[in-house]
Amino acid sequence: MANQSMKIGRNDVGSNNAVYIIAEIGINHNGSLEVAKKLVDVAIESGCNAVKFQKRTLDVVYTPEELAAPRESVYGTTNGDLKRGLEFDEAAYGEIDRYCKANNIDWFASCWDEGSVEFIEKFDPPCYKIASASLTDDALLMHHRKTGRPMILSTGMSDLPMIEHAVDVLSEKNLILLHCTSTYPSKLEELNLSGIATLRKRFPTVPIGYSGHEPGLGTTLAAVAVGACVIERHITLDRAMWGSDQAASVEPQGIQRLVRDIRAVEAALGDGHIRIYDSERPIIDKLRRIG
After folding, report:
1. Residue 228, SS3?
2. Domains in the chain with CATH codes
3. What share of the chain is helix, strand, coil (3-state, %, to 5)?
4. For the chain (length 291 residues), average pLDDT per consecutive 10?
5. Helix axes 252-269, 218-225, angle to 10 degrees
6. Is 113 left (phi over 0), alpha (psi -120 to 50) or beta?
């Protein structure tokens, strides 16, 4: 297998390195900086390597008709009221930047438009995440590429030719692909974890990870067992909280267990070299018959 390693923040990511674990906060902060900080704390206490947010320029991403559409929420009566309520401004992101750096955890964002990339650039992020929905947006991919930063691209809602085209636009250098199914929550029979091996074979120099939206944790551990070197899961303080992504997210105790068990799976996978361990030698002396 070709080299599949790169640097994100303080972490070496890819072949022969510890799994890089991203806690996706997304919009689960519900527009509250206090909730956002609590979610960062959850990620830190669980041992995650990074937290991720989402950034949109609303007048670019949505049409006036979409923003004016009726939609009841805690923020008002239109879809625009909701979307505006979920967006952090520069001051809020400045506080997130300060808080994450003070606590030695990487943070970055998935940017849904070119202006949002320019906005997040102010904070010198260690990388960018590109959402599955943006995989076919060549102009946005090229705008990301111009920053020269590492990219993490999710591959939900895409077939292999689409992914190949996106990789050509972004370049295989400093790129990570995350196998993904973009339903919330995802059906187990549609996770297709064998796709991780397919991507590893097709892009031998690109680290391959997994972004999961399924119920439970076992299948995310299985993704590590079949070769995922990056894991991303949404986190929430409580799945019963208001918000579209909360139900497909992992609560604090769940993300703690997931990180713990990922580290256990890593240790158990080993290096593949078959050997006799020193701990087995007394058992050989006691039980084995030779000849």
Report:
1. coil
2. 5-287 (3.20.20.70)
3. 45, 20, 35
4. 77 94 97 97 98 97 97 94 96 98 98 98 98 98 98 98 98 96 96 98 97 97 97 96 90 98 96 96 94 79
5. 30
6. beta
